[in-house]
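2 proteins. here.
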Amino acid sequence: MNEWITAINDALWTYVLVAALVGCGLWFTWRTRFVQFRMVGEMLRLLTDSAVDTIETQVKEKGEEGRRRHISSFQAFAVSVATRVGTGNLAGVASAIAIGGPGAVFWMWVIALIGSATAFVESTLAQLFKLRHKDSFIGGPAYYIERGLHQHWMAITFAVLITAQFGLSNNSIQANTICAAMQEAFGWSPVWVGAVLAALALFIVFGGIHRVAQVSSVMVPVMAIGYLVLAVVIIVMNIHEMPHVFKLIVFNAFGFEQMAGGGLGAAIMNGVKRGLFSNEAGEGSAPNVAATATVSHPVKQGLIQALGVFTDTLVVCSCTAFIILISGLYDASDANGIALTQSAMESKVGSAGPVFVAIAILLFAFSSIIGNYYYGEANIRFITQSKSVMTVYRIFSAGVMVIFGALASFELAWNIVDFFMLFLTACNLIAITLLGRYVFRLLDDYRQQKRQGIKDPVFHRDLFPEIKDVLEGWK
């Protein structure tokens, strides 16, 4: 079964999805006039402003007057980054380099640079077509497919696929990586580690999106800063090797030797595959949480989510790749995944390296588990409002699949994820390509208001009279 899934994954990834991802990314980059490059300053301003709003809101919620709760733009960003910054950054990068060589890193950068435009489009659409739901908003690809394209069957298909991908199989990857890291560092049994992870995850997910948002907004900055500080220290200590590292990456990405030996295809495929798993641009996952944010204009959250792609791949993934390449172990070790990252760390900081990586991946991957769970929850609510179905899903997502991942082999867990990721991404890319015209008009409206001196542009659904009636999340 594992060999069968591998064959399908390789064929479709090589000939179909790589071309679709790159093609859509280039198209959106051109039609948005390079939004991911031209509006970086605005992205940072919005993130800073929304972080301040989050603190003020949390203070108010503790008082008598603050009974209305909402998910801030910053909290939505934190939850989406929680799912991005995780296993893909430590184990995924190592796997890409081990299989595709150093050149895979270059193609991870490429898919991030052009994919951030795709992330902008999908998250802006999620904001546009969001719905009011109790004390927050709800939305995502299933909702913009249903309300924008009026294709109920396609919306249901997406909802099922993302639930299987993120809520179930993706959580098994996180657990698999955590258990492998703990066993490598401390010799702990995957059975017991998996059981503890499942218990903690179940406790959090039964608290709903507000608990997920609160936990993620604290864990994400802490874990990201801690890992980046150590990575930067290692890189600075070995700064004399960085020219060689960059030469290695570029040479293996375009080298004639790789072309002749078929290694170029492996570098591209694994770079794009692991890049997508890490930053999720175009996969249709981040829009589910982007829709929950309370903002004055859909473009705001689109810009913030595009920034998340840069943060994930160009910063965190690059740090991991540099450490592995500096160590030289990628070519002289049988280790793969998180074990390779731990070995690289050990070679540079001693026996404390594997321990630090184990703790880091625990925080990275565990935050991904609770973030992944919410993607499934949002889409199950799209299909049914049954409380019993939701209870069963919570048990399987945070319990059963976490334990399955703890016990499954590295190859089986990753192959299952790649299989569902193929069809999930294809479904979303079709939808956002057909609906992209709304995003282009929204971006023009946002830029026009900024040119008029308006600091915080405001969206009114009268801008789209043809779909005004389905934009229930806006005035």
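next one coming up
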Amino acid sequence: MNNGWKEFFKEETKKEYFLNLESFLSKEYQNNKVYPSRENLFNCFRLTSLEDVKVVILGQDPYHQPSQAHGLAFSVQRGVKIPPSLRNIFKEINNDTGAAIPSHGDLTYLAKQGVLLLNTILTVEDSKPLSHQNKGWEIFTDRVIDQVNNSKQPIVFLLWGNNSRNKKELITNKEHLVLEAPHPSPLSSYHGFFGCKHFSKANEFLIKNNLKPIDWEIKE
């Protein structure tokens, strides 16, 4: 990392849990199909420097089908069919802010504006959701949340679904805003995700704190 995450990575990657995680990943990448690719693994940190974070969207683990995951929570690479959860996110953005629904699901545009698209688990084996659970990623991403929580700049945390909402206890800085809702998956989106208006609420908070709001409309 050649941005604000550099020192964090320098310290964290020395720790025993991360060394064990790295050993596990080396074998997994060698012997199985793992997503995202090695070069895309830390994309959310490359694209969103620590000092630029204004919004955190917390996912669970990466998409587990070919060509989908590329290191940004909920995002898929261009040319890949938009998954149901992301389609529902776009629907809520459209209903909430009027932003047009895009033809692709690449959220790089948001990451470059200061939206940290963080999964709590950063890798997955092909067709096996949660296959890399309890291997060390949760420790690492809890430390990421802790690092962001310590930021003096007010930040909005969007926690969707029980897995993400369980991380609320890590967000102790009263300067930040935490917004919770059910997961945007088809199973739960109609139980409170639709109509949550998290995107306009996030921008209202940013403007109130003299920060540039997020342009939620994904550029083609």
